[in-house]
Amino acid sequence: MVITAYFLPAAAGADERGRARRKLSLPALGTQSGGGGIAVLVHNISETGMLLESDADLAVGDSIGIDLPHAGESPATVMWISDRLAGCRFDTPVSSATLSAAQLRSSVTHDPLFDDEAASPADQAFGRRLQRLRAQAGLNQAQLADRMGVSAPAVSGWEKGRARPKHSRMAALAAILGVPTSELLGDQPPEALQDLIERSRAQIATMVGTSADKVRIIIEL
């Protein structure tokens, strides 16, 4: 379960973090978020807390207010931080009905930058390839996200194989990375006919216990 959410921009004149409670906005049921503020992925939510991923400058002890269905604004406190992940505990446990309504949003909201297919070995292989090419290009996830016009958690999701960009955006992504689209997608150019014949001769020779020069391949057209 992953819910796309946003930390709303701080109000004018608000103090730095730790002074004012951050507002976390979940998308309305069946609709997309307006996209303002800092993008957040809610990876897990329970009656006692939630796991967030974002580029927000959070610290242990920070207070977050999240508007949950049925419960209204429910305050939570950041208990631990690890890179872009933050474990938060609700100040007061929420009800199971509230939890079910919040979890339902993960099945009806959609990010148009992602394909709807579930993560697969191919998606995971794409993610590893993207991570390698991004590192070779000297970019971090935030820089690549900025150039693609997406959030850093979205790039993180691509690299972890949870999703991948729409096919129509692959050319732009490859251009940013400075590689051909075929390299980004892992498409290998077709093998030359002579190379295929030589490789096949060698394999056949090995299987029958002879030398490659004694193997003849005839192609009838």
Description of the structure:
By secondary structure, this protein is α+β, with helices and mostly antiparallel strands. Helices cover 33% and strands 21% of the residues. It is built from 7 helices and 7 strands. A 7-stranded mixed barrel has the order 1-2-5-6-7-4-3. Helix 3 (141-148) packs across helix 4 (152-159). The N and C termini lie far apart (55 Å).
Give a summary of the structure in a few sentences.
The chain is of the alpha+beta class.
Keywords, separated by commas or semicolons:
single chain, alpha+beta, 7-stranded mixed beta barrel, 7 helices, 221 residues
Give the topology:
Layout: E1 3-7, E2 22-25, E3 38-45, E4 49-54, E5 63-68, E6 72-82, E7 85-90, H1 96-108, H2 121-136, H3 141-148, H4 152-159, H5 170-177, H6 181-185, H7 193-208
Parallel strand pairs: 2-5
Antiparallel strand pairs: 1-2, 1-3, 3-4, 4-7, 5-6, 6-7
Structural class: alpha+beta
Measure the end-to-end span: 55 Å
> How is the quaternary structure best described?
single chain
Annotation field: number of helices:
7
**Helicity level, as a percent range?**
25-40%
- Flag low-confidence runs: 28-36, 106-118
Approximately how much beta-strand content do the residues carry? 15-25%
pLDDT averaged residue by residue: 75
Order of helices and strands: EEEEEEEHHHHHHH
- Cα Rg: 25 Å
**How many beta-strand segments?**
7
Biggest sheet layout: 7 strands, mixed, barrel
Largest sheet: spatial strand order: 1-2-5-6-7-4-3
What is the overall shape? Answer: elongated
